[in-house]
Design brief:
Blueprint (H helix, E strand, L loop, with lengths): L1 H20 L2 H18 L1 H5 L2 H30 L2 H33 L15 H4 L2 H4 L2 H7 L1 H17 L4 H22 L3 H16 L8 H25 L4 H7 L1 H10 L6 H11 L3 H14 L2 H17 L6 H14 L9 H13 L7 H5 L2 H26 L27
Helix pairs in contact: 2-11, 2-14, 4-9, 4-10, 4-11, 4-16, 5-12, 5-16, 5-17, 5-18, 9-16, 11-14, 12-17, 12-21, 14-21, 15-16, 15-21, 16-21, 17-18, 17-19, 17-21, 18-19
Length: 428
């Protein structure tokens, strides 16, 4: 009997270790720690790792267009009711505007009370901000934003094709072909995601090696305030929304932990876009809702970016001892309500939006952007993680409000099957 128990114990331990070493999340965590270590102790070598991180993100980006197109077309052509498609789109945009406006207000409120800008400027690192401060009011162009935002372009084309296919007599044949293509694309993505630890290692190595941990010390108060605010937004605001729809925010975050770690390592929410879409479908959200909400959210539901932009304005005002009046604060929020929607898809657009906002207020020196450039990279992870969480939760909310959330309809075994690693399914 004792020998049997010993054998069972050994078998259990072997099984536990096997699950750990074959879990992609485990290796992504190891990669992040290794990247930080290399960046700190061998910065020159770490900077050269940038190509690994960017190559992984570029590889993932190849899947974004096909996955968005296939998901939306299949979702719309399978829905049948075009009024419902329009309703889901309108409801999504309304939800995005309400939540991002709330994010802006929270960013202003926390920054106003914690005053991250009340620090000594003499110890701050200055970077060249001339590319953002030259003619900022006219630098941002909505047409250029649309032309540079591939996600938005694919979204529009896919909606048109999906609607057209819905009225075609060849709809069933086309859907069968597209379904086969979808399975092939996701199968290929599954194998590409095994490279996620390399991407996380490259991205984190470069960040720490290039900027150094010591670079953030003078602005630790700002960074701490930003991370605290985004934490409050996720767990209080988004957590309350999830609770209203009978979901647990902690369980949900555990479910998408792999995607969050990939975003943390690469500083890009796009690196997890295909995977998060697949996982939300496995959770029970309908393909049509996932296809419409996630791509649209990546351009119009930037909660983390909204928080950062609002806090950056308050930080610079405090840094220069400028008291903004209530009308000026409301004006700033109003401007960012519109311009923050364009802070995606174009490199540097976040700073261009920030520069445009400062120019419109005409109270804060544009040169203040130079203080933020030194630590912007360290806060991009927080923005990206908050953005992807916000979009994932928006999808669950829209799916449940439209009765398009059916966890019981997912075939047995499918709920735990994700792109790259098995997870515990989320129950309502």
């Amino acid at each position: 009997m004792g020998l049997l128990k010993m054998e069972l114990s050994v078998t259990t331990r072997h099984s536990m270790w096997y699950k750990i070493i074959t879990n992609l999340t485990f290796w992504v965590m190891i990669a992040i720690v290794s990247g930080v270590t290399l960046g700190h102790f061998a910065p020159a070598t770490a900077v050269k790792m940038e190509v690994i991180g960017t190559s992984f993100v570029d590889l993932i980006k190849l899947f974004i267009g096909p996955i968005i197109f296939l998901t939306i077309v299949l979702g719309i052509s399978g829905m049948g009711d075009m009024k419902k498609v329009g309703r889901i789109g309108a409801k999504s945009l309304l939800y995005f505007e309400v939540v991002t406006t709330l994010a802006l207000a929270i960013g202003v409120t926390v920054a106003y009370f914690l005053q991250p800008g009340k620090i000594d400027k003499s110890g701050l690192m200055m970077k060249d901000a001339s590319q953002y401060t030259s003619s900022p009011a006219s630098s941002f162009n909505w047409l250029e934003f649309f032309m540079a935002n591939v996600t938005l372009q694919v979204l529009v084309v896919a909606i048109i094709v999906g609607v057209g296919l819905n009225y075609s007599r060849h709809r069933l044949q086309a859907v069968r072909v597209l379904n086969k293509l979808s399975k092939i694309v996701f199968k290929a993505l599954k194998y590409v995601m095994y490279l996620a630890p390399l991407g996380a290692f490259g991205g984190m190595s470069y960040t720490i090696g290039k900027f150094g941990l010591e670079a953030i010390l003078p602005l630790m108060k700002l960074m701490g305030t930003v991370y605290l605010t985004m934490g409050l937004f996720i767990f209080v605001v988004l957590g309350s929304i999830m609770r209203y729809y009978k979901e647990n925010i902690f369980r949900f975050l555990n479910y998408i932990r792999q995607e969050l770690l990939i975003v943390l390592g690469t500083s890009s929410s796009e690196s997890a876009l295909p995977s998060i879409m697949h996982k939300l479908e496995r959770m029970g959200c309908s393909k049509s809702v996932v296809g419409l909400v996630i791509p649209t959210g990546y351009s119009f539901n930037l909660d983390g970016t909204s928080i950062y932009l609002s806090m950056a304005v308050i930080f610079l005002a405090q840094l220069y001892d400028i008291q903004l009046s209530v009308p000026e604060l409301l004006t700033m929020i109003g401007i960012l309500m519109v311009t923050s929607k364009g802070a995606a898809g174009v490199t540097g657009s976040g700073f261009i939006v920030l520069a445009s906002t400062l120019a419109a207020l005409n109270r804060i020196p544009l040169e203040g952007l130079a203080f933020l450039l030194g630590v912007d990279k360290f806060m991009s992870e927080a923005r990206a993680i908050t953005n992807i969480i916000g979009n994932a939760i928006a999808t669950v909310v829209i799916a449940k409000s439209e009765n398009e959330f059916h966890p019981d309809a997912v075939p047995e075994g499918e709920a735990t099957e994700v792109v790259a690693v098995a997870e515990v399914p989320v129950q309502g």
